[in-house]
Amino acid sequence: MLSTTKNILLMASASLIAVMGANLAHAAQQSYRIPAQDLGSALQEFTRISGARVVAASDLVAGRQSRAVEDVLSASDALSAILAGSGLHAELIAGAYVLRPDGKGGAAKAPVVASMDIVVTGSRIHGSGPIGSPLTVIDRKTIEDSGRATVADYVQTLPQNFGGGPNEGLTGTTARNGANSNVNYGASINLRGLGTASTLVLFDGNRPALGGAYGAFTDISLIPSVAIERIEILTDGASAIYGTDAVAGVVNVRFRDHFKGFETHLYSGTADGAFGQLQLAQAAGTRWSGGGIMLAYQFDHRGGLAGADRRASTEDLRPWGGPDQRSVYADPGNILAANGESFAIGRSTAPGHPTLADLVPGETNLVDNQKRVDLLPRQQTHSLYLAADQEILPGLSVFARGLYSRRHFDLEVLPFEGQVLIAPGSPWYLDPIGTGEPILLERDFRTEVGDPRSAGTTQGLSLTGGFEGRLGSWHVELSGDYGRQTENNRLSNVVNFNHVADLVVDPASGFDPYGGNSPALIARIRSSVRDHSLYQVGSATLRADGTLFELPAGAVKLAVGGEYRHESLVSRTTDNVYAEQPEVTDIYGTPAARHIEAAYAELLVPIFAAPDRLPGRLDLSLAGRMEWYSDVGRTQNPKVGLSWRPVVGLTLRSSYGTSFRAPGFTENIGASFNLYQPFYVPDPASPTGQSAVLGLFGSAAHIGPEKARTWTAGFDIAPPRLAGLRLSATYFDIAYRDRIGSAATDAFSYLLFRNIYGGLIQDHPDAATLAAYYASPGFQNPDGIPPSAIVAILDGLTRNLSSVTVRGIDFDLSYTQPMLGGQVSVGADGTRLLTIAQRLTTGSPATDVVSTFGNPVKLRLRGHAGWSRGGFEAHVTVNHVGSYSNNAIVPAEHVGAWTTIDAQIGYSFPRPTPFGRARLALSALNLFDKAPPYINNTAFNSTLAYDPGQASAIGRVVALEASFSW
Length: 966
Description:
Layout: H1 16-20, E1 30-34, H2 39-50, E2 54-55, H3 58-61, E3 69-73, H4 75-83, E4 88-93, E5 96-101, E6 135-139, H5 140-146, H6 151-155, E7 199-203, E8 228-234, H7 239-242, E9 249-255, E10 261-270, E11 276-288, E12 291-302, E13 305-306, E14 334-336, E15 342-345, E16 359-361, E17 374-376, E18 378-393, E19 396-412, E20 419-422, E21 439-442, H8 446-449, E22 453-471, E23 474-495, H9 497-504, H10 519-525, E24 526-551, E25 554-575, E26 583-586, E27 592-609, E28 617-629, E29 633-647, E30 650-661, E31 675-682, E32 690-699, E33 706-717, E34 725-741, H11 754-757, E35 761-763, H12 767-774, E36 790-819, E37 822-839, E38 847-848, E39 859-869, E40 872-881, E41 884-886, E42 893-895, E43 898-908, E44 917-925, E45 937-938, E46 943-944, E47 957-965
Parallel strand pairs: 2-5, 7-9, 32-36
Antiparallel strand pairs: 1-3, 4-5, 6-8, 8-9, 10-11, 10-47, 11-12, 12-18, 13-17, 14-15, 14-21, 15-16, 18-19, 19-22, 20-21, 22-23, 23-24, 24-25, 25-26, 25-27, 27-28, 28-29, 29-30, 30-33, 31-32, 33-34, 34-36, 35-36, 36-37, 37-38, 37-39, 39-40, 40-43, 41-42, 43-44, 44-47, 45-46
C-alpha cells in the first residue's frame, strides 16, 4: 500500500458534495441578478450561477418567497440575501449548503421531524457526509441536462460503471459477468467491473428486491426518473455501514418525498429505424402543517432495435477483414454426408423433399442470424411512486413510501439450432456419396415454425413505513421494509428436436424435414420455455443517532442500529424444448430462504478545528458492523475515515475498511446437484498424450462470503481566490479475495497449465477417495473408465476460488465563470484504471486483465462544456471509452477507442406560461452518429461486429423534452 502513495497527487473523484469544498463561504465574488420569486426557483438560479450545491427538503422550501438579489457578491452572501426573511439560513456541511429553519422570520413552522437534517450515503449520522470517502451526487437537473430519458440510460455514461454484465444489450450474446441471468432484459449497475452483486443499490437507504433469474442484481430500469431527487454514489467499500454487497460501492436513489406542486414531463426521442422513446410523467404533491403527500407516475415506451437496421449486427465479419461466421442452419439447408462433406440444397428447390440433383457439392448455404433478431427489445414501463408523512405527536412522525413498477418486453431472438439425423430406409434419406450411411440435415426451421420470440413481464414492489422522531438531540427511527420482484417470461417458436427426430423416423407421420409441412405437423415440433422467479426481502430496523458530548473541536456523534432481514427466492423453469414432455424444474435447488441479523455503530470525532488557519480541521470516523447469516455464519467489518482541511480550499481525505458479499442462493446450494465424472484430458506427462481424470462439477459443500479490503486516498481543491474552480482526485485500491467461481469450463486445460490450475489438481488420489466418489449418487461414467486408470482429480466445483485486485484513479475537474454575457462551465471527469490483477487460485500467477475483452478499459472519460444566459442553456458532453485488446481470439486483436458527443440546447421561460413554468430542450445523443468500434465478438451461439458491453449500436438519438411546473 505504501508503494502506491506516490499516486495520491494524481488522484481524482467525482464527489460533488466534497467537490464544493468549505471554501464556498469565502469564494470570490460573482454577478447575481435573481428577481424575487418562489424560493425553489430562486435557489435553482443561484445554483446555476454559483456552481454551489444547496440541499434542503422540499417541504422546507415550499411556499416561501425569496428576496431579489442584484449585485456582485460571494456565493455565501448571495445565498444569505436570497434567504433573507424566509425563516431559513444556510450551513456548510461536507461542502454543501444545507438549509435549516432559524426559528424566526415570516415562515410557517417546519415539521418537527427534521428531514432537512439530511443523511448522506456513506454515513448513518444526520447532517454528516461520509468522512474520508469519495461521494458523487447526481441531481435530477443533471440527468435532465444529459438528454437521457431514464436512470438506466444515464448510469451507462458514468466512468466508474462498467457496461458488462446484466444489461439488456448483452442478454443472449454472452454469459460473462452474469449477463445470462438477465432473462427479462433489465438494467444494472456494475461499479469497477467487479460484478453487479458487488455494488449495493438502495432506495432511500433501503434494500429493494433483486431481479434476474437468480436474484443477481437490482433492476434500475424500474426506477421512474420523475420521482428522483438525486442519486448518491459512494465509490468505496461500505459493508461497515450497510452490510453485504457494498464492496465496489453503494448507489443510493433518493426520492422526492416532500415535493410540493405539480410537474409534467414529456420526452420524445428517435433514432434510425424503428427505435424510438416516449416518456410521459406527472408528479404532484402538497404539504400541510406537520405532513404531506406526494404522488408520481411515469410511462416509458421504447421501440426495439432491429439487427437488420445496424451494420455491426452481423455474423459476416469480412467487411472488416474478419471471418465469415454465418450459420450453416439455413433454409434451404445443407446435407452433411458421412465423410463430413457438405452439400448445399439448391436455392431454387421448392419447399419439400429435394432430390440428389438438387444437391450442390462443395457449397454451403449460410444465413446471417443477426439480421433476423433484435439487438434491443421493445419495452413498456409503468411506474407509480407514493410518499406520505404526518406528525402525530410533537417530535414524532409516521411515514410511508411505496414504489410499484411493471415493465413488459418482447423481441426476436436467436434460434435453437440442431442437426436432424436421417437414416437409410427413411423416405427422406439422400446419399450424395453412395456409402449407405446416415446423413445429417442442417436446416433453419424458422420459415415454418416462425421467428423465436422472447416476451415477458417484470413487476417490482418496494414498501417502507415507520416512525421517526427526536429524543433531545437524538434522531430515532423504527421502520419496516418489504420488497418483491416477480419475473415471468416465455420463449416461443422454439424447435423441439426430440420431436423432430421422432417424426422423422416415423414414415406414417408425413413430416418432411426439408419443409412444406402442414400447420398441424409444425405445431407438434413448436415448443416453448417459461421462466418464473420471485425474489422477496423483508426487514425491520431500529436506529438512532445523535450527540454524545462536546469537544473543543465540536460534537462527538454516534449512530447505532440493529436490523433483521429475511430473503427468499423461487426460480422455476417449464421446459418443452429438450425433453419429450414438458419438464418443470426448480433452478439450482430453489426455493431458498435465509435470515440475517445485524448490529452496527458509527462514531464521528472532531479532532481539532481551526477553520481559518493551520492546522485547520480534522475529523475522524470509526464504524463497525456485525452480521449473522442463517446459512453463511458470522461476519464483521470495520471502517475508518479521515478528513483534514489544513487550509481553506483544500481537503485531504482517506478511508480504509473491509467489505464482504454473501453468496447468492444459487451459489450456496451444497453438493446435492453435483456431478462426478471420469474422462480423458490432454496430458503432456503421459506417453499417449492424454490421461484419465475424475472431474468434480457442481458446488462445494461450504461456500463462505467473498471478502475485500478497500483503501482510498484523495483530495478536493477549491481555491478561494479562483472562484468556480474545483478539482477532486481519489486513488482507490480494492483487494477482493475468496471470490466465488469455478474453472470447470477450463477442465481440459488443467494438466496443460499446471502453473495456473495446480491448486485444483489432486494427483494420484488414494483408492478410498476414488471409491467414495464412484459410489456417490452424482457419479456418471459414460466411458466406463475404472478407478485404477484415474491419475488425478480435477476440482471444477464452484467455491471460494479466485481473487482480484483493482487499483485506479478517479478525477473530476470543473471550472465555472461569468463569461460571454452569461455563465460558462467546462470540465472533465473520468476513471483511469491502473490494474485489474486476477488470480484463479491462491497459488496461481496474477494476470492483469484491464483493457481486455469482457473487462473495464484503462480510461473512461467525460468532458463537458456549457453556457447559460437568462433562461437559455447549451451543453456539450464528450464521452470517451478507451481502446482494449480482444484476447478472446487468437491472435489477439486491437479494438479501437469509442468517442461520442452529446449536445443539448434548452430554454426556461422567464415568466409562467398558461401551462406553468416551462422548459423546452432539444438533445442529440451521439450527435455525429459514431458507430461502435469493430470487434470479432464470437460467442458460443453467434457473432457480432461490436461489443455491447463497451459501446451502443443505437447511433444518433434526437430528442425533444418539455417540462411544466406550477
